[in-house]
Amino acid sequence: MNKAQLKKIKDTILKKSPLVFDQLNKKQKSDLFKFNETYKQFLNKSKTEREAARQIITAAKARGFVDIDTLLENKTSSAKKVYKVFQGRCVALAVLGKEPLVFGANIIASHIDSPRLDLKQNPIYEDLSMGLMKTHYYGGIRKYHWLAIPLALHGTIIKADGETIDITIGEDPDDPVFTVTDLLPHLAGKIQANKKLSDAFEGEKLNLIAGSIPLGSDEEKNRFKLGVLNLLHETYKITEEDFVSAEIEAVPAGKARDVGFDKSMIGSYGQDDRICSYTSLEALLDQQSSDKTAIAMFFDKEEIGSEGNSGAKSSFLEDFMSDLLFISNQNTDNRSLRKALINSSCLSADVNAAMDPDFKEVHEKLNAAKLGFGICMTKFTGVAGKSGSSDAGAEFVGKIRQIFNKNNIVWQTGELGKIDQGGGGTVAKFLAKYGMNVLDCGPAILSMHSPFEVASKADVYMTYLGYKAFYAENR
Predict the structure, then answer these.
(1) What is the CATH number of the domain that holds 426?
(2) Which of 37, 89, 366, 444 has the highest CB neighbour count under 10 A?
(3) pLDDT at 474 over 90
(4) Does 429 fall in a domain?
(5) Are 106 and 129 within one domain?
(6) Are strands 81-86 and 66-67 parallel, antiparallel or unpaired?
(7) Transmembrane segments in this chain: where (predicted)?
(8) What pLDDT, on the 0 to 100 scale, is given for residue 79?
């Protein structure tokens, strides 16, 4: 066998794993960088799930989407592009297709919450002549990541009279920031250095410095706490009791930044999973009416198991699908709703872990995703023996593979680390319960769940193109 024959065999049977930048022409590379500039703006304005929801709704309205609840109230059904917001923390968008919805829809489901520090309901206290704030961490964080970095407060407060106040403190250059202190290495030997990492940093010690100017004389009790509360009252007219009905999140202060001399990557808080939220949003906004209805779901609470009335375990998707049947003048009985759900196809849009050059040992290299190699299809997630995973069927993986190949989408496959190393989950299994085909699909990132996650701009762009191709599929 000569070299030409061997090359032909290799080209025929071996799986290709191209780098995205090797596959793009000059114009495509230019489009890639332009797309990522708007993505960075989205990240900067969407530090919380409520802020992300508002950005999504604003973008949808600008492209002609109509509030489906308004249509229902007015008993009109002329709109073909609709949105629905629920609890201010999750959103659904749809472009209605020509086929009856009972034949199914193309759905992409992402989540807009991210790991963070939440203020407790009684947060303000004082100690050692300082005003401090108690927090409770949300989602899977590595606690030491959140020490000695500048943090901003974003949140919503419902006052005693029902007034709603939205606050953002720490993003403007003139704003103060907040921080959790860390122990100096000179004194950390017994209390931290000799402990397991999981024991060295305690959740109850993730307390924010809030101020150090007292209110009143040195005979006044709690005068540093009073100093903090008085400033808040003067600025926002809120009292200590108002924290009981507040959702205030401490998140990394600052903007998304380019990473690397070549600016080929983005570093930012919250890319898990706003990277998929943004790309699926833009893909849907570009979608023209076709045979299949296209739906984008943006859920809350994924980082704590998709719980609550705004998570993927809720009935939000069923409710939205029922509304779509109604405004389309289709049968809204239980059987029609079940058929619409079971006949749908869904991409669970979430990130995977990119193989880190310094921590290769936690990955199985044949089946690990890499930065810059395109959108990642993740057949299963879960822990150890695929526990907690929906595990997509071969037929649906084959369908998505065909869509991507037909549309020149650069893609790869991946799993979340070695079998017994760890694991994780997504919203996939909560959507698979309806019987629809579901596949986890999104870009791989470095430093997942840290305050500064890193993504390849090439993967961001290829994810957008992949989602766009999925929405346009009518089979």
Answers:
(1) 3.40.630.10
(2) 444
(3) no
(4) yes
(5) no
(6) parallel
(7) none
(8) 85
Which of 110, 466, 439 has the alpha carbon at shortest distance from 270? Answer: 110
**Residue 48 sits in the same domain as residue 192:** no
**What per-residue confidence (pLDDT) applies to 77?**
72
Please state, in angstroms and rounded to a whole number, the distance separating the CA atoms of residues 247 and 242: 10
- Identify whether 430 is part of a domain: yes
Could you tell me the residue range of the domain that residue 195 belongs to?
116-252
Output the pTM of the full model: 0.95
Pairing of β 375-378 and β 437-442 = antiparallel
Q: What is the CATH number of the domain that holds 190?
A: 2.30.250.10
Q: Residue 1: its pLDDT value, please?
A: 81
Summarised one tens digit per residue, pLDDT across range 100-146 is 999 999 999 999 999 999 999 999 999 999 999 999 999 999 999 99
Give the pLDDT score at 78. 75
CB 317 within 8 A of CB 66: no
The tens digit of pLDDT for each residue in 30-45 reads: 999 999 999 999 999 9
Distances in Å between the Cα of 256 and the Cα atoms of 42, 139, 268, 273, 367 are 9, 21, 5, 14, 30
- On whether both 159 and 297 belong to a single domain, the answer is no
Per DSSP, 178 falls in state B
Q: For residue 74, is pLDDT > 90?
A: no
Q: In the structure, what pLDDT confidence band is assigned to residue 290 with cuts at 50, 70 and 90?
A: confident
Residues 37 and 137 in one domain: no
Token pair, residue 321, equals 């699908």
Within a domain: residue 264? no
Q: Are residues 131 and 110 in the same domain?
A: no
DSSP category for residue 16: P
**Which residues lie across from 117 on neighbouring strands?**
137, 250
Query: In the chain, how many domains are there?
Result: 2
For the chain, give the longest Cα–Cα distance: 94
Task: Provide the CB-side half-sphere exposure for 395 (13 A, CA).
Answer: 3
